[in-house]
UniProtKB/TrEMBL annotation:
Family affiliation: Belongs to the polysaccharide lyase 1 family.
Source domain of life: Bacteria
GO BP terms in the entry: polysaccharide catabolic process
Compartments (UniProt record): Secreted
Cellular component, GO annotation: extracellular region
Domain Pectate lyase residue range list: 257-476
Any one Gene Ontology molecular-function term assigned to this protein's record: hydrolase activity
Keywords assigned by UniProt, alphabetized: Carbohydrate metabolism, Lyase, Polysaccharide degradation, Secreted, Signal
Alphabetical list of Gene3D superfamilies matching this protein: Exo-inulinase, domain 1, Single-stranded right-handed beta-helix, Pectin lyase-like
Protein name per UniProt: Pectate lyase domain-containing protein
Signal peptide: 1-38
Organism: Polymorphospora rubra
Positions of region (Disordered): 210-230
Length: 540
């Protein structure tokens, strides 16, 4: 699990100022298909260590560590609220990760707030001490339940709550599932917030946007937002980038090649397969619910999804030994692992975590969203990794490379990673965020509406950012995002609606020193990546 170890520039105020509340524009792409661009009004994961800009009413609010940094309300003797945003916001969805930690009696609740005119006039989606889910209206007096359902989290467990207010329609989602809905016209606009009533709770990953409809919970994003895919790509094509390099006694990345093939469709079968010693090809058939948080994948494994709709929910994959303070690569470091054509949803920690000097890992053609922490994190001395053709969306803390400013003893000289042809689809930050890695190669990716930063290269890391397509990205790249500066060569990138390219500078070793590659014309990258990234593209 990674987190920022230095204060990060506050970004939500920039989002709120730049966005047009209550609007949803459609841009016609080269495919002739309308593609919806939602405005991100606010995003706050509290990793800057504070809740500046939030106005508190009652309770005891503070930013504390609960796995990652969270905003916690610890009092249970009164109602408590904290609000942020604009009273002019109209049609939007507000969501947050919520974990109840205690209820002082029956009929108490915790949840998220929308269209708040004041601390006593708002709508709320809450979970109660009895496990119910309610849409509430508070108009000066006690809250009134407008609609009720079931399926709220119990004490000590996280869930993602999303409240949408569009016109007079109110819809409440828990972990992507529509649970309650109703109509009410008392409040047409207002701020967002977090609320507890005689209860304590932790809140994290607050996001507000004009996209409506539940985030995905199963297979890949489908429908008019995806262009025609064209013919499947060659499933036998080897990786490009650092995963292809002969190094550390490993001849490229071949996964389970030479081993038997098994097909799994249950959690027990999958967990047995990824733990089996020796080369093995594992075919995942359907969506498999794993317990959290993450499960170890051993060396010489290929894990692939069958068709476009197979994958993992709940738990994630850990590629690496247990965390320790060693500073040299151990002889039993996990290596030669391929993860392809899988959907990852609702993971309670990282979806894919690569750590502890693991090497030769290829993460390709996956669809990842709606996780708790990182979607794909690489850290603690890992190296020779390629992350390619993945579609990432409905998530904030996307990809971390190097987890902490103080981990140089393990990371310096390691963290050689290639990111190519990925679709960073409205993922505000960490696209990726880099510490120490050198060189890190980011080429031919499509970045769209990243409302914080695209590539953040810091702490003496060295990045080559080339041939990418940045569309409506607030700051496409930066070497001074937070903390000590990195080094970056930025060349041949296309900027569309991205008025602030960011800063670059310094010298970086050329990736071509390690491997050969061919750049796609950056003007074609958007079309190529949208047609090829994600699951169901490689004929498996």
């Amino acid at each position: 699990m990674g987190k920022a170890s230095v204060p990060r520039r506050p970004r939500w105020r920039l989002l709120a100022a730049a966005a047009t509340a209550g609007t949803l524009t459609a841009t016609v792409l080269a495919f002739g298909t309308p593609y919806a661009f939602a405005d991100t009004l606010l995003s706050d994961d509290f990793e800057d260590g504070n809740s500046n800009g939030w106005s508190k009413s009652g309770g005891s609010w503070s930013v504390v560590t609960d796995g990652s940094l969270v905003n916690r309300q610890s009092g249970t003797s009164s109602d408590a609220r904290t609000l942020v945003g604009s009273t002019g916001w109209t049609n939007y969805g507000v969501q947050a990760r919520v974990k109840p930690t205690g209820f002082n009696g029956a009929n108490r609740h915790v949840g998220v707030v929308a269209r708040a005119q004041s601390s006593s006039n708002y709508y709320a989606l809450v979970v109660t001490s009895g496990g119910a889910v309610q849409l509430l209206k508070r108009a000066g007096g006690a809250p009134v339940a407008l609609a009720s359902g079931a399926g709220g989290p119990t004490v000590g467990n996280w869930a993602t709550l999303r409240l949408e207010a569009v016109g007079s329609a109110l819809r409440g989602y828990v972990d992507g599932n529509l649970v309650v809905e109703t109509t009410d016209s008392a409040f047409a606009s207002g701020r967002v917030g977090l609320a507890t009533s005689y209860a304590s709770a932790s809140f994290d990953d607050v996001a507000v946007d004009t996209q409506t409809g539940a985030p995905p919970t199963g297979g890949p994003t489908t429908g008019p937002t995806l262009p025609p895919t064209g013919p499947p790509l060659d499933p036998m094509a080897p990786p490009i980038g650092f995963a292809s390099v002969d190094a550390l006694g490993q001849d490229g990345t071949t996964g389970g090649a030479g081993g038997p093939t098994v097909t799994v469709d249950t959690a027990a079968e999958l967990l047995t397969a990824i733990a089996t010693p020796g080369p093995l090809n594992i075919r995942v058939d359907g969506m498999i619910a794993l317990p959290g948080p993450m499960h170890d994948v051993t060396s010489d494994k290929t894990v692939v999804g069958v068709g476009a709709d197979s994958g993992i929910t709940g738990g994630g994959f850990n590629i690496g030994l247990p965390v320790s303070n060693i500073t040299t690569r151990p002889p039993d470091a996990v290596h030669n692992v391929i993860i392809r054509n899988l959907n990852f949803r609702n993971t309670v920690d990282d979806a894919i975590n690569v750590q502890m000097f693991s090497h030769h890992v290829w993460i390709d053609h996956n669809d990842l969203s709606q996780g708790y922490d990182g979607l794909i994190d690489v850290k603690r001395g890992s190296s020779y990794v390629t992350i390619s053709w993945n579609h990432v969306h409905h998530h904030t803390k996307t990809m971390l490379l190097g987890h902490d400013d103080n981990n140089g003893a393990q990371d310096i000289g390691q963290l050689k990673v290639t990111y190519h042809n990925n679709w960073f689809d409205r993922t505000p930050q960490r696209n990726p965020r880099v510490r120490f890695g050198d060189p890190v190669h980011v080429f031919n990716n499509y970045f769209v509406y990243n409302t914080d930063v695209g590539v953040a290269c810091q702490l003496n890391s060295g990045c080559v950012v080339e041939g990418n397509y940045f569309e409506d990205v607030e700051e496409p790249w930066s070497i001074s995002y937070a903390g000590q500066r990195g080094r970056m060569i930025a060349r041949d990138n296309v900027l569309v609606g991205s008025s602030e390219p960011g800063d670059a500078g310094g010298t970086v070793q050329e990736p071509s020193t390690y491997y050969s590659y061919t750049l796609t014309n950056p003007n074609d990258v958007r079309a190529v990546v949208m047609a090829g990234a994600g699951t169901g593209r490689i004929g498996l």
